[in-house]
TrEMBL record:
PANTHER family: ATP-DEPENDENT PROTEASE LA (LON) DOMAIN PROTEIN. SUPFAM superfamilies: PUA domain-like. Pfam families: LON_substr_bdg. It comes from Streptomyces viridochromogenes (strain DSM 40736 / JCM 4977 / BCRC 1201 / Tue 494). Residues 6-224 form the Lon N-terminal domain. InterPro entries: Lon_prtase_N, Lon_prtase_N_sf, PUA-like_sf. Gene3D superfamilies: 1.20.58.1480, LON domain-like. Transmembrane segments: none annotated. This is Peptidase S16.
Length: 246
């Protein structure tokens, strides 16, 4: 078992290997994380782990509010995640490699990272200025019949895109250059589909590529049927998600 300890960045979204993650970093705990990552030489990976939040808040309350206007806001690296931060997060996440970390004049950061490797969360440490985690690297197994499953997923995904384009009264250009490597297909399609966090999390933690592709095939068929009935869903850019405000 290969383990590593990395800074931990919880989000209300799921990061997949190969996908781009833009971040707008303004909370002090994450500013401290970025300042620490900037100490790593530019020719070395500036890595941190992203996990989806199961129970908690991506941004900690910074002022008293409802229902108690006198409540004292939480402070520290685990603010918003309860007494046991590890219990607030999904157990499978993704390592991110920050290609760009740009500090603004106000001390906030603009970050552009890319997902690289799936990891399992083993423990969380909250004694420093930001959360860190011990992580186990997860293998990428192809599973049975991954290649033909990928072909079926690509066909279904193109139909899904056409339905989305019709719902938006626009054309989507992302389908023309889709790769055919099963593992890459499984992650790109998982990221591009309009699914909630629990559904995307299930795809991330699938035991192998074939299992993920089988689940995607079912989801694509059901989601395409939904779009046909309710043509008002938003479209998505394939390899980039919305900027997370942290």
């Amino acid at each position: 078992m290969t383990t590593v300890r990395l800074p931990l960045f919880p989000l209300n979204s799921v990061l997949f290997p190969g996908l781009v993650l833009p971040l707008n970093v303004f909370e002090e705990r994450y500013r401290a994380m970025m300042r620490e990552l900037l100490k790593t030489p530019e020719d070395e990976p500036r890595r941190f782990a992203v996990v989806a939040i199961r129970d908690g808040h991506e941004v900690a309350p910074s002022a008293p509010g409802l229902p108690d206007p006198t409540a004292v806001p939480e402070r520290g690296p685990a603010a918003g995640f309860g007494a046991d931060p590890a219990a607030a997060f999904h157990k499978v996440g993704c390592v991110a490699d920050a290609a760009t970390i740009r500090e603004r004049a106000d001390g906030s950061f603009e970050v552009l990272a890319t997902g690289t490797t799936r990891v399992r969360l083993l423990s969380v440490e909250a004694s420093g200025p930001f959360l860190t985690a011990e992580l186990e690297t997860l293998p990428e197994e192809p599973g049975d019949e991954a290649a033909p499953l990928a072909e079926g997923v690509l066909r279904s995904f193109r139909q899904y895109q056409k339905r989305l384009a019709g719902a938006r009264e626009r054309s989507l250009s992302t389908g023309a250059d889709l790769p055919d490597e099963p593992g890459v297909v499984s992650y790109l399609v998982a990221a591009a589909m309009m699914l909630d966090v629990p559904a995307k999390q299930r795809l991330l933690q699938a035991p192998d590529t074939a299992s993920r592709l089988r689940d995607e095939l079912k989801l694509l068929r059901s989601e395409t049927a939904v779009i046909r009935s309710l043509p008002s869903l938003p479209a998505s850019e394939l390899t980039r998600g919305p900027t997370s405000l942290n």
